[in-house]
Amino acid sequence: MKWTMIGLAGALAAASLAAPAAAEIVRHPIPNSSFPIAQAVQVPPGATVTYVSGQVPPLVSKDADPSSVQAYGDTRTQTVGVLNRIKAILESLGLSMADVVKMQVFLVHSAAAPMDFKAFMEGYTQFFGGSQPNLPARSVVGVASLANPGFLVEIEVVAAKETK
Question: CA angle, corner 121, sides to 120 and 125, nearest 5?
Fold first, then answer.
């Protein structure tokens, strides 16, 4: 019996030494596509996950009515402003845009003024898909309005980082 217990203890010790390193976040691209989003992102157990509330654009024109689009800019300008706000929040938490695994985008859309998806993408690709290749899973939704009539864009994200 002593021999069996020693053998078992040795096997367990060897198994713990051979255990794989912590799992990594895996981003699955859309097959046969260069569109700058991930089809899916897998976050392993033990990763630190951070939820960032919806962010709206900063004021770009102090002279404009604060409830007007002119106060916050067009869709591209608002997208860049919102993503810069998100970037600053993430950096204050020791994270970066490369850690974003999920993004939910709300763009104002109506029959009279359809959402400007092209302008949104012009702003978005300044942060994702170029020199920063970690792409999030993402959805874009057209909404009737946001909290301020001047807002055309609101974005919330989930970021994750593997624990070392």
Answer: 125
